[in-house]
Each structure stands twice: as structure tokens, then as C-alpha cells.
Amino acid sequence: MTDIDTSMASRPVLTAKDFASDQEPKWCPGCGDHAVLQQLKNVMPDLGIPPEEIVFISGIGCSSRLPYYMATYGVHGIHGRALPIASGLKTSRPELSVWVATGDGDALSIGGNHFIHTLRRNIDLNVVLFNNEIYGLTKGQYSPTTKVGLKTVTSPNGVIDHPFNTATLTLGAGGTFFARAMDRDGKVLRSILHRAASHKGTSLVEIYQNCPIFNNSAFQAFAGQENKDESTVYVEHGMPLVFGKFRQKGIRLDGSTPTVVDLFKGDVSESDLWIHDERDTFKANLLARFFDDPLTVENFLPRPFGVFYAEDRLTYEDALTAQITMAQENGEGTLEELLKGDNSYVIK
Amino acid sequence: MSEPISSTSKFTVTPKTSVSVLFAGDSGDGMQLTGTQFANTVAVYGADLNTFPNFPSEIRAPAGTIAGVSGFQLQFGSKPVYTPGAKFDVMVAMNAAALKANLKDLHRGGIIIACTDGFDEKNLKLSGYPEGANPIEDGTLSNYIVFPVPVLQLTREALKDTGLSNKEIDRCKNMFILGLLYWLYSLPIETTVDMLHAKFGKNATIAEANIRAIKGGYFFGDETEIFANLGRFDISPTKQHGTYRRVTGNEACAIGLTAAAKKAGLELFLGSYPITPATEILQTLAKMKKWGVKTFQAEDEIAGVLTSIGAAYGGALAATNTSGPGLALKTEALGLAVMLELPLVVINVQRGGPSTGLPTKPEQSDLMMAMYGRHGEAPMPIVAAYSPVDCFYTTYEASRIAIEHMTPVMCLTDGYLALSSEPWQVESAGNLSDINPRFSPERNADDPPFLPYKRDERHVRPWAIPGTRGLEHRIGGLEKQHETGHVSTDPDNHELMTRLRAEKIEKIADSIPLQTLDNGPEKGDLLILGWGSSYGAIKTAVEQALAKGLSVAHAHLRYLNPFPKNLGELMGNYKTVLIPENNYGQLVHLIRDKYLFAPVSFTKVKGLPFNEMEILEKITDLIKEH
After folding, report:
1. Which residues does chain A have within 8 Å of residue B43's beta carbon, measured at their own beta carbons?
2. Cβ neighbours of A19 in B, within 8 Å
3. A75–B340 C-beta distance less than 8 A
4. Which residue out of A53, A93, A98 would a mutagenesis test of the B interface target, given it has the greatest number of B Cβ atoms within 10 Å?
């Protein structure tokens, strides 16, 4: 969707403010959703798409209120069903820029079936998944991404469900684009949203989003100034996997085993490291499995952020359009032809 | 093209006004194909007809067993026929199981053409006949006229020098039967011959073998003496000249949706998930790409309806099709569609329930679900089709109501209509009523704010689709503020919006025709008020009752919510109102609730449609009571 609409030429230059609706966001103070909304509004003017051709669709949950705050078209759907609503709209109107705001409960629990099937179809949707590892709107029940052991109102003795890893789930379902961002890291988030918008196919952006009320600091290990440099790695296409406050650590691939190496020891240099390749399915799947909890795992692998994987694959709607174009090679069917059918007979 | 063949005419030919025939055999015997070919021949010949396939829900039930019997029933006549026949006059039984499974529905004195090869020891045992018993030999069928025909042997004889394998030759035995039936009913073989040429174009040997089998059957009738006493029959063509096609209810639904989209100038989008007996609608529409139709086979029933809601938001004529269990899954989404006030056509092909119930058998038991099966106050218009051809008109009308009144519409058919077929004189495009979507036009920045829930005099809100400059707006499942569409929890606003949504549906009654009588006097002893697929049985029974001089009339409802405005008055003209339904009494509830009187309920919940004899008997009983 990077094509600049010609009708935009005659319009005033839009800014983030032009994408703010007249409704005041009703999220709690300090909620990560505010930051994501701001970055979405920041990104919109850069896309060169007139606001009337942008649609935000959501399900149910705190993050699903987002469409009300965007001065575009929008549908606030029902729990778990944002993706099929968006899929139907995009299939019917491929020229629109269709965005989905969803959460870990909405997308991965009640809407889990739609999640995997949308990804395999590769419909050109930009899916922003706000993962706060908790149910916020219903007040604090555990979600399918909540860490094992967390005590919540529905897990007073600690969660015993093994959590989903959104990255492996996305790639396992045949997704063509996966990226991870942190709510408070505006710069990275903004660049990832740009990438998601320009990717042709289902772009899945998982955002670690803090819920200050029911699951505060769930991502502190990756977000806190004191430790984020050591616990996260930002991946960039063509660049080695280097991290650490002094860029002193790297990840080397020993066969298919990723190993953290010390770059300051002198026996390993950046050229020995894993070079990130967004188009490499195999490596993306390894990267997706970097899911250690730094607080409980010794010699943990850092949590990756950035674009893990971007595959160029025909979208569902383009394939369908191509079939229709082929069927209409000799002209579109008329109403008369439709009514007559191809097996009519004449009685004299 | 083969040369036309004709009988040597040594037999008497008796004219008949109508005949009901059942082709029954093992599900591997090709009975659906045989019946379909017979129906096509009858249709092209110009007789009226009505067909109904009856096959097991298993794809390949054990061969030779009762469970594996597949049947194709049709009635054809020189006068209009409205049902496949309450009982059949002729039964083709390819094996013992087919005979055993269907004998109870053969008229006393009816004809049985039994394929003797299917009555060997093995087949008799598999179908549960006691050892040593063979119905076609032991005299137990003395109430019927039985013709044992060694079909397999005769087919092998006729095709012996074709060079085909035995297996290929044996597969032609259904064509032999077909030829024999063509002879018996003085029908031309050319329609089937042409089909075989077209189908096997590049494989001429197979086509020729099948044609030879048809001729074999035809000449067997003509040359053997076994039919000497019976003679042949003739049913004179009834149809006026014109162009016809034969459609099933499911096909007609698909054509109806596409025609409505074309007429309205919209794209048709169908979000769907396969379910018996509704799947052919999806299958038919998947082949309609030439008309720009987009079908989306979703991951489940829920996504089926929600993709359609998404497409409706984008300005398509959106539809979803399903059957009972699927409709149950869609109900939450239908509540959303009611709230969003977007056009959506929901075709529910009813089947026996609850739960998986009787997947291949028809029932009319989802009326209550259509009417009330959503949480909250969520009214939806309901229309119901009464015949295979009417599935076209009812679906078209459902689309018109959806688009012009900005609402989801429930269109009810059932498994009987879905799979039955009848001839349809090709409709002219000009005869179809206009459908006018009212899209909101672009707005400028200095225009007053757009109000997505500002209603017109019919309480209909505008259709504002993405891509239209100046109409950017957000809608959702949360209650809307009147006119602005903003989220609102205001108590008075919720009550107002609830009332407006209800009145919007009630106001549809202003745009639908008044209820008319199908047949019978304007005042009298008894009115039969039907809906859905019972039409043919009621129609036929009322014709017979009127011929007997009984004071009975028939009205058939297409509009079940809202009812036509004159319905109460119309019912008041009769001493008794009878409501036959293939459920435990659902329309009767709605009528009693609205009009505060007690119609007589007549229910049948057997997974089978009503037949005319049952209705006639009920009419006679009721009128006697007066």
C-alpha cells in the first residue's frame, strides 16, 4: 500500500492529528495502548493513503477500542472475530488499506481459529496484536500468553497453562510476516508499522504492551533500562545479531543451535555471527523460538525484536481477483445469461 | 447424433395424467444419474415434473444393505405437478435392499421392475430376507405387478462386442433400465444420447456403449412379451412453448443472490462453510466467477458470516448459507449485523435437529430460531421459499429487503427444497423488481458532520462505505447513540434505539405484498395456512378437496416476519385455520401470539415432507367435525 493516491496531491498535507477522531481514548492512564495509538497516528500520514481508504477493524478487549479513536473508517466487532470481518472486507475491496487491532485474548484465544487461517491465506491485512499477557477489560484473568505461575483472579494458585509464543504460532500457521515491538519503544514500533503497511500479505505485529492495572511490568525484563540491553536483541535484515549495552554480545549459529558469544574476548568477531535474513524461513523459525524468561533461565537467549520474517507470497485476494479476471476473459456474465443458464431447453 | 428410434407399436398405449416413479438401487448403482437423466428427458419432452433424491448420509454405505440404498423419485404429468408424489406408481429396484426399503411407499397395484441380478442369494441375505425367501419369485408381491428383468445379463449381451471390460459393461446397466423406462412411457431417448455424446466426447467407445445399453433396454421392452398385458403409457406434454431450465432449490438460491447483486449493481460476496444440505449454494456460486461472484470458504460457520459482514460494510451484497447447527454458531454475529444495520442475506437450509439430528432430511424446525434465536432484542425479517423455483424469487426478495432496509434477512428453505428440482421457464431480466442500494454520497470538510445512524422515514440508516470521502465513521457492536452512532450507554437512548430497530423491521410490512389466497373460496370452513416446502402437498390436497366440494382454501406465507398486513383479516374469513408444519408447532405459536386466536396445529416430525394424502385426510377430518 505504498502507492501514493493521486487524489492526495490536491489535499493539504495530513499530520498525525488529522487521524485522531473526536472521541477521547478511554484507556487507563499509563496503559501501553496510548503509545501504540500515537504511533499508528504518526505512521498514517506517511502512507500516502487518503483516510477514507483506511479501515480499522477490531474485536473485543481494551485494545479493540482503538478504531473509535482513529479518524478513518472503522468497525468494532465481536470477541475474536476482527480477522474474519477484515478478511471479508479486504477480499471484497482489495484496494482498501485494512488494519486490525486485536489482543492476546481476542486473537489467540477466542479468535484462535481465525488467527491461524487468516495467516495461511495471506490476506493483505496489517494486524496489530497488543499482547499484555492478561485479560484487561474483564479485569485480570489470565490469557493464553500469560506466564506459567502467575496468580490471577482465575488462577489463584498460579497459571498452569503453557503460554502461546505468538512468533512460532504465526510462522507455524504459514504467516508471511512477523515482527515484534515494545509499546514504549516508539522509534522501533513506528518503523515496524511502516514495514507492516508495505508488506503485501498478512502482517502480524506483536506488541508487548504493558497493562499497569492487572499485569504491571510483565515485560520489565525486556523494557527496563537496567536490563533491556542484555535481555533483548534487535534484528535487522543483513545485520549480525549483536546485543548488550556495549554491543559486546553476539549470537552465533552452531549448526542449528544458537549460542551467545562474547565479542570482547577476541576469539569471535561479528563476521562469525548469525546474519539476520528476513527471507530465511529456517532461521526465522529458530529466532521465533528465542522465548526464554531472563528471570528464570540461566544463559538465556535474548528476546528478539524487529522484523523476524517477510515472505513475498501471492495474497488470497489477488489470487481470487486473478481467477475472476480469467473467468471474465470473454466478458462479464450478463443477467440474461445468468437467468438462462447453460442447460436450458426449448419447448416448441 | 444417433437416428431417432421408435417402437414397433404393437402395444396399446394408455394416456396417463401423471406418474410417480422411483429409481432405487445401491448407492453405487448410479441411481441419481439415472433419475436425473429421466427427469431431463421428461423436462425437454415438455411434461411438468418434480424430483426428489433420497440418498444415504454415508458416502459409501456397505453395498447391498438397506443403509446403502439410494433413490431418486420423480413425478411427471400432463398437468402441473407440485410434489414428487405421495406414493409412487412405479418402482425400479436394482436390488433386494432397494425393494425392501421402499415397498411401503409403492401404491397397491403399482409396478415393480426388478433387476433380478440384485436378487441373488447374497443380496437377499444382505437386505435381511429370511433364507430361501425371494420376493420376486415367492408370490409375496401379489398386490403389485412385478417384472423381473435380468438387466445385467441383457446389458452384457447387448455390449458383448464393444471391447469394453466386464466392469465397464456392467456399469452401463442403469442405462439399460433407463431405455426400458423410456420405452414404457413413450419418451424419446435423444436427450440422454446427446448428453452422453457431450459428456464422453473424447471417449466415443464409452458413449456408444451407454447408448447401446439404452437402446438395448428400449428394444427389450418392445420385443419381449412380458409387457404385453400392461402395454405402454403416454403422458402428453403440458408446458407452453418457451425456454426452460431445471433447477434445484439450492441452485435457485445461488442464482437468486447473483441476480439480485446484478440488478442492484453490487458485487456478490458469499462467506460460507460446507454443511449438508446447504453446500450446493456455495458450490454453485463458486462457479459464478464470470458474474464477478466472490465466494469465501471460511474456516468455520462463524467466519462464514463475519466475512460477509465485513464485505457488507464494504458495500457488497453479502450472504451466508448454512443449516441449523451452523445457524446456531452464527447467532452472535447476527446480533452484530442487527446492531450495525448492514444488509446481509442468511440462507438457512433447514434439516432435522436438534444437534446433528437428521443431516440429510428436511424439517421446518428453525423458525423459532430465525425469529428469536439471538441474544438481546434483535429482530430480523424472515422469508421462506415454498418450491425449488421459488427459492430464486424468495432469495431475490430477501436480498431486496436486506439492501433497501439495511438489515440482515433470514431466508428459510429446507433440505427437501434444496435438493428437489422442477422446470423453470427462464425468467426475463426485465421482470425482476429493481433493487436500489442507497449509498451516502461524498461530503466536503465544511459540510455538517456525517450521521451514520440518521434514519429516513422507514427508520433506515444510510449505507456509508469505505472509500467515500468525508464519511469516515466508526461503528460497532456497542449500543449506538441515536443519529451520531457514537458509543452510548444512556438508558433512554438504549430504549429509543431498541424501539427504532424493532419498528424498522415492522415497517417492512409497508413494502411487501398483501397475502393472497393460492386457491379456494374467500370465505369458508377451513383455511390452510402453510409456509415453506409443504406447498406442493397442500396445493395438491386442496385441489382434491375442492374437487370433492369441500369448503377449503389455501394461503401460503412467504413473509414470516413481518407478516403481511392483511393476514389477520384474511384468516378471520374462515371458521378454522389449519397450520401444517414439519416441526412441533412453531408458526402456530407466532400466529397465536400475534392474532390471539387458536389455529389448529398439524405437525409431522419424521424427517420427511408432508404428502398430499396426509393433508387431505386432515382436511376431511376437520370439515367433518363442523
Report:
1. 345
2. none
3. yes
4. A93
CATH domain A6-218+314-321 topology: Rossmann fold (3.40.50)
**Contact across the interface for B426 and A341, Cβ inside 8 Å:** yes
Secondary-structure breakdown of chain A: helix, strand, coil percentages, each rounded to the nearest 5: 35, 20, 45
Q: Which of B264, B276, B265, B273 is nearest to B308 (CA)?
A: B273
Count other Cβ atoms within 10 Å, centred on residue A291.
15
Q: Is B340 on the interface with A (CB under 8 A)?
A: yes
Is residue A141 classed as helix, strand or coil in its secondary structure?
Answer: strand
Contact check, Cβ <8 Å, B240/A347: yes
User: Hey, is the C-beta of A348 within 8 angstroms of any chain B C-beta?
Assistant: yes
Each residue's pLDDT expressed in tens, for chain A with a length of 348 residues: 444 455 666 788 999 999 999 999 999 999 999 999 999 999 999 999 999 999 999 999 999 999 999 999 999 999 999 999 999 999 999 999 999 999 999 999 999 999 999 999 999 999 999 999 999 999 999 999 999 999 999 999 999 999 999 999 999 999 999 999 999 999 999 999 999 999 999 999 999 999 999 999 999 999 988 889 999 999 999 999 999 999 999 999 999 999 999 999 989 999 999 999 999 999 999 999 999 999 999 999 999 999 999 999 999 999 999 999 999 999 999 999 999 999 899 998
How far does the CA of residue A89 sit from the closest CA of chain B (Å)? 4
Contact assessment for residue A86 and residue A56, using Cβ atoms and an 8 Å cutoff: no
Q: Contact at 8 Å (CB) between B69 and B98?
A: yes
* Domains with residue ranges and CATH for chain B: 13-234 (3.40.920.10), 246-431 (3.40.50.970), 438-512 (no CATH), 524-625 (3.40.50.920)
Q: Is residue A160 within 8 angstroms of chain B, CB to CB?
A: no
Q: How far is B582 from chain A (nearest CA, A)?
A: 31
Q: Are A136 and A27 in contact (CB under 8 A)?
A: no
Of the candidates A174, A199, A176, the one whose C-alpha atom is nearest the C-alpha of residue A120 is A174
Q: Give, as one character, the DSSP assignment of residue B50.
A: E
CB of A113 within 8 Å of a chain B CB? The answer is yes
The residues spanned by each domain of chain A are 6-218+314-321
Matching residue, cell 438489515? B407
Backbone dihedral angles phi then psi of residue A180, each to the nearest 5 degrees: -125, 140
Cα–Cα distances (Å) from A31 to A36, A61, A207, B471, B509, in that order, read 10, 13, 13, 30, 49
* A-chain residues near B466 (CB < 8 A): 52-55, 73, 89, 93, 96
